[in-house]
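Hey all, sorry for the wall of text incoming. These are the two entities for the joint prediction.
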Amino acid sequence: MPKLTHQQYEKSEYNLHLIQTKKFKTNTVALKFARPLERENITERALLPFVLQKGTKLYPTEKELRLKLDELYGAKFSINSGKKGENHVITFVLDFANDKFIPDTNQLVRDCLQFLYEVAANPKAENGSFDEAIVNKEKETLTNKIKSIVDEKMQYANMRLIDEMCEGEKYSIHSHGYLDDMDQIDAQSIYKTYQQMIHEDALDVFFVGDFEEQDVKPVIEEVLTFDRKPSVEVVRSEPTRADQVETVTEKQKIQQAKLHLGYRTGITYRDPDYRVLQMFNGIFGMFPHSKLFLNVREKHSLAYYAASRIESNKGLLLVFSGIAPDKFEQARDIIIQQHEDIKNGKISDEEIDQTKKAITHQLKETIDRAGGMVEFFYQQVIAGEFQDIEQIFDSIEQTSKDDIVRVANKVELDTVYFLTAEDGGEGNE
Amino acid sequence: MNKIEIPRINEHMYHETLENGLDVFLYPKPEVEKTFAIFSTKYGSIDQTFTPIGENEKVTVPDGIAHFLEHKMFEKEDGDVFQHFSGRGASANAFTSFTQTAYLFSSTTEEEKNVETLLDFVQDPYFTEKTVEKEKGIIEQEIKMYDDQADWRLFFGTIGSLYENHPVRIDIAGTVESIYEITHEDLYTCYNTFYHPSNMSIFVIGNFDLDSMTDLIKNNQDNKTFDKPNGIDRFYGEEADHVYKPVEKIYMPVTTPKCMVAVKEKKDQLKKDQLLKNDLIRDMILDLYFSKSGSYYEKLYQEGLVIDKLRLEQYLEESFGFAAIGGSTTKPEEFGDKVKEMLLSIKNDPIKQEEFERAKKKKYGELIREFNELEGTANTIIHYHHLGIDYREVFQVLEQLTLDDVNNATHEWIAEDRISICMVLPEGEQ
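and here's what came out:
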């Protein structure tokens, strides 16, 4: 069994997580700022990662900032944002070489932490405002990105499914923001949103790598001295039930249709049944041995991909497949039938055994990546539910067929979303 | 097995060429959970015209056949090979590129049995008319999925504008028409020619026992018989150094246009002994001018010619090569002209010593980072091995690289008649 050394320190400014491992040649530092999703500030929060990467007091242009990273032996840096359940999380990640592989260097950790602090705490701003030219330029960039989503069919179909399924729920808020908001955003208003993030958001700091705690912890405490009073807490959604199944069809000029189905599971990460739900999802659609792949793809040759995944903080299960436009009913019925079969106990011992092994494997593989380790522990922070990795393996192992059937019966279809070709696919033969 | 040191990162791996010609690489890493293995043949989408093993006449097979064959390797008389891996909790996969087809798995238990399955299923083809017919619907959906992706269309549109005859211009999966022509006899012809152990390598990296893994692979191969290899004749057609079409436009239903500008390699730049060095130089130049710390990128961004970052691609192979700079843009024509002009002006705007030193540091850190990932490490070493290159030399090549090497290279590399521009434009503008 793998050993994971994770040391957590709760401080008034942030929680510090130290994860020691010899797996990597680099160290990874991540800052995660979280607060509940709100329609009012979402576009500004989506815009922040763009603005913050364009300059700081010390490195006033994007080019200077990137040159500093080059100087730090090609340190890799990004800021991104996204949904975690009904929270919005802004993540800063810096990955840099462990200096034991670099001749004549021994303070890369300090230099890199200082860089990270500079970007987060000293953005290019004055008198309560970001640089106006930067904000205007980045508004343009984000506008173009939002407009391009429709060109990525899988992502678009996913977004539309959630729009329809979770209408009126916080979860349906678009984490990339809204075009309608752009006119109201200016260099001052977004600076206020930044101030809220840096002072009030729940903040977790992760440091992953091959280091000694006594060398690294004091440096982190000395360098990452954010002046903050966290005042918001992340939300943990109560799962909602499905009512009537709705079917939504949309047409575009495309070759391949996308059939996405949304289910309510009633089970979130905190639920004692969460590991059983993972087992259900594994048998249903997560893997190449799952019922969806074997039936939709292998048996009926309807799709190149057909799979499912769970949204663990909101209690959803989403199925996605790419099919020929004229195969809608056949594909939908086969997908629904696979769920029915599990509800009726049509599960072999082999399927259960394979799924247990596959989930265990997947989790071990996750903790072979630095980013995977951060996500593993952060998931627990968001859920407020702390479990040892070995406990998780145990609960997977102990899942019985009855458990799976019971959970399959809690899972309810909510929405069928179909993105299809304008000509009904006739031009495709 | 021969122990070989990997400089700078203080690790080592093992290598041996078996009697049947198979190259075996073993790289134990006890600190990680998983084992990753990749079994790869030097046979990709470009290998369409060749002399089949045991015959004298060359043949040309339908577009997309290497990829089709990859799909069909997983199906056996007694079912799907995926299930054997799944039964042990392993995840298996495969991919086809321009120059190789590779089968792989990752697992955290029973890695020896998985390696055995990997060797056995790839070395035991089972193609029938029925199984081949069944796959066509699946691959048709795969092709259509890519047809809807603007980035994919842009990339292949670009290659099609660079190359007139070389089969790199053909989409890896082929076309819906071409895959329907494929027969199970075609698959056997390709299989028998290209899946000989002397044309293949296996790389195992991760948490496994070196001695028993060595024994397992050797015994497994000793128990199989293969014909004597007689080398493979491959034909790629005559290709000029200059581009086929300087400008290519693709119309499809997109909201945001895209543009890619590419430089075709002269054949004399692809010599084996220069490849690693040329690779590093191109990488460094693209980075110095067009990455987010690059001076040309800054201009493009400020002039509103690019949305977010640029896509920088670089391929150097035995029979073809190109470098490409692409991005989403609201002004595709201007983007194309500007990037072309920038490429041509590099030789008048040479890199300074300070910039060069910083770029070297950056590249060094990136090389160290590459070894974080098991998959990447194995793939990179195998890729270069297929080209006859020992990838470990990259550290030394980088350290010995001089500013003059880089600045002089531009003259040989970039020329107006070797640049093409490809655009993906919204359909209405046609």
